[in-house]
Amino acid sequence: MPTSAPSPKLSTPLEQGGAPTHALGDVTASDSTLRRFLHGLPGVDPVGLEARAASLGTRSIKTTAKAYAIDLAISMVDLTTLEGADTPGKVRALGAKAVLPDPTDRTAPTTAAVCVYPDMVAVAKEAVAGSGVKVASVATAFPAGRAALPVKLADVRDAVAAGADEIDMVIDRGAFLAGRYLKVYDEIVAVKEASGAARLKVIFETGELSTYDNIRRASWLGMLAGADFIKTSTGKVAVNATPANTLLMLEAVRDFRAQTGVQVGVKPAGGIRTTKDAIKFLVVVNETAGEDWLDNHWFRFGASSLLNDLLMQRQKLATGRYSGPDYVTVD
Amino acid sequence: MSAAEKSEQQRLSVFKTYKLYVGGKFPRSESGRVYEVTDSKGKWLANAPQSSRKDARDAVVAARKAFGGWSGATAYNRGQILYRVAEMLEGRKEQFVREVADAEGLSKAKAAAVVDAAIDRWVWYAGWTDKIAQVVGGGNPVAGPFFNLSSPEPTGVVTVLAPQESSFLGLVSVIAPVIATGNTVIVIASEKSPLPALSLGEVLATSDVPGGVVNILSGRTSEIAAPLAAHQDVNAIDLAGADDVLAKELEIAAADNLKRVLRPQPVDYARTPGTERLTAFLETKTVWHPTGSLGASGSSY
């Protein structure tokens, strides 16, 4: 844990060239120094990691604590629709839901953001105008990331020009797995620069990284390159966010802040569908990174169906009756 | 004494762990509780799971999940499956005769008659699945160039409080009509004698009845029924096994989301039931269909 906790509102200072400056600035000087640094990170004990994540999932969160957790989780949702079949109408409906998740209960908080494809950013922006809900856009040839850098950057600039407040980029997993860390690093730096004022979330697609060691390396690589958020997955592969890989990434952001004073957010995405799951993740956040991350500026859930379950649980707490899917919107 | 007889005497009997039947699986109660079930003379028979409201909630989720497939299955297919239940019961008759005799204090002959009647009841309702639409639906005469058709549709997820006294025939008589028309059901077994109901779950699991169509809970009727009556995702409730006080409470709770309520009434389960329970959980959908203008050249189709 950090000895002197820096202010949580610190963001990465950028040099003119785009590369971030911090205590670890020199490790990115060349491919070999970066490799030495990433491979020098302590190895992950998978059994211990999973056991720790599982044991944190057994906490019982009830009554007022549960009510707090549900509202916090709602406020952390990046309400997502990333389908080929997305229409402007669907995006507008999603925007309306993000602004007013439960039309029968105006005390429910708004979600953090809506997350859409770049061509839907303008529509989404209009739908959430004036509500404080952010618009996040995936970019860089999401979800595969298999495109040339200029194409990826054009994708990013488009999204930013359309008004995106946040950019969710995917890393080049092929390059990462081939050990070409500097290429991945340079790409993130370039995308960060192209994003301008928009906050950058870097998606690792943990389900494709094979090992926990790789997830730890990717986390550090992303943070070194100036990510504002590190994100588990696209939601498009078989294995998405799990408590274990999120725990691992939370350890990374905690250690990164301790070493550099820079706080980075975490976003698990995909596969989180129930309130119970969401609360488990919040316990993991609190116990790993600490209270500073219990805020939608620093922690998000990438999800779509999760919100309905959170709302049903919220209605149950408010009325004492179990709610049902007839009382939330179908999206 | 021969060696064979000796080993027969020394053998420890294997007690059966009765479990709930939810979503096609046999879970213990989420609460981990059990309660003692005795026969009509007070002799201990077995421990039955004592369900909590969370078991009820899980059962609703399972029943809702199963509703699409079951209500969408053809009536003919549902009839086949209900008949299959009768076939499976026939093969396990002895077990049910024993359990019913213990539960209700009947002689073996009388218990056998009850089980036979229950098996026949499945067959009877199996026959109704593809006939009820003709009885309560059909074309309506209207004054205009329209077809007007009414067809019965299942209500949805139905909670049934099984009769407290008739632990098996009564149980079958309240479950079968509900699922015959395409509803899915959460049944709260007789509180005093839940064992035949819990064993019925094992029969249903091997009868091609999709998991979640029938969910069987045992425990304190009032404890499990209250959250189910208030549950927003339950569409109807059959109060057959509730006493007057409980029935009133549950009906008030059920009013919140306009559940269909079937009030408790005196029923002789030994008699042929009629279609009342079949139609209690049906809704009528009526559609108008234009026949087209009938001009000089005939139909415009």
Biggest contact: A-B, 9 and 10 residues
Strand and helix order of chain B = HEEHHHHHEEEHEHEHEHEHEEE
The CATH topology name of chain B reads Aldehyde Dehydrogenase, Chain A, domain 1
CATH superfamily of chain A: Aldolase class I
User: What is the total domain count of chain B?
Assistant: 1
- The CATH architecture of chain B can be named as 3-Layer(aba) Sandwich
Q: Work out the helix count of chain A.
A: 12
Number of domains of chain A: 1
The assigned structural class of chain B equals alpha/beta
CATH architecture of chain A: Alpha-Beta Barrel
User: What is the average of the pLDDT values of chain A?
Assistant: 92
Mean pLDDT of chain B: 93
C-alpha-based Rg of chain B, rounded: 22 Å
Describe how the helices and strands are arranged:
The complex is a heterodimer of chains A (331) and B (301).
Chain A (H helix, E strand, L loop, with lengths): L30 H9 L6 H11 L6 H14 E4 L7 H12 L13 E4 L4 H7 L6 E5 L10 H13 L4 E5 L2 H5 L3 H15 L3 E5 L8 H13 L4 E3 L11 H18 L4 E3 L7 H14 L12 E3 L1 H15 L12
Parallel strand pairs in A: 1-2, 1-8, 2-3, 3-4, 4-5, 5-6, 6-7
Helix pairs in contact in A: 2-10, 3-11, 3-12, 4-5, 6-8, 9-10, 10-11
Chain B lengths: L2 H8 L23 E5 L5 E6 L3 H20 L2 H17 L1 H12 L3 H21 L3 H5 L1 E2 L6 E9 L2 E5 L7 H12 L3 E5 L6 H11 L8 E4 L3 H10 L5 E3 L5 H11 L5 E3 L13 H5 L1 E9 L3 E2 L2 E2 L2
Parallel strand pairs in B: 5-6, 5-8, 6-7, 8-9
Antiparallel strand pairs in B: 1-2, 3-4, 4-10, 11-12
Task: Provide a compact summary of the structure.
With 331 residues, chain A is of the alpha/beta class. Chain A contains twelve helices and eight strands.
Could you please describe the fold and organization of this structure?
- The complex is a heterodimer of chains A (331) and B (301).
- With 331 residues, chain A is of the alpha/beta class.
- Chain A has one domain: TIM Barrel (Alpha-Beta Barrel).
- Helices cover 44% and strands 10% of the residues of chain A.
- Chain A is built from 12 helices and 8 strands.
- In chain A, helix 6 (149-161) links the parallel strand 3 and strand 4 (166-170).
- The radius of gyration of chain A is 19 Å and the shape is globular.
- Residues 1-18 of chain A have low confidence and may be disordered.
- By secondary structure, chain B is an alpha/beta fold.
- Chain B is built from 11 helices and 12 strands.
- Chain B has helices at 3-10, 53-72, 75-91, 93-104, 108-128, 132-136, 169-180, 195-205, 221-230, 244-254, 276-280, and strands at residues 34-38, 44-49, 138-139, 146-154, 157-161, 184-188, 214-217, 236-238, 260-262, 282-290, 294-295, 298-299.
- In chain B, strands 7-6-5-8-9 form a 5-stranded parallel beta sheet, sandwiched between helices.
- Chain B is elongated and about 100 Å long.
- The A-B interface holds A 315, 320-327 and B 57, 60, 64, 227, 230-234, 256.
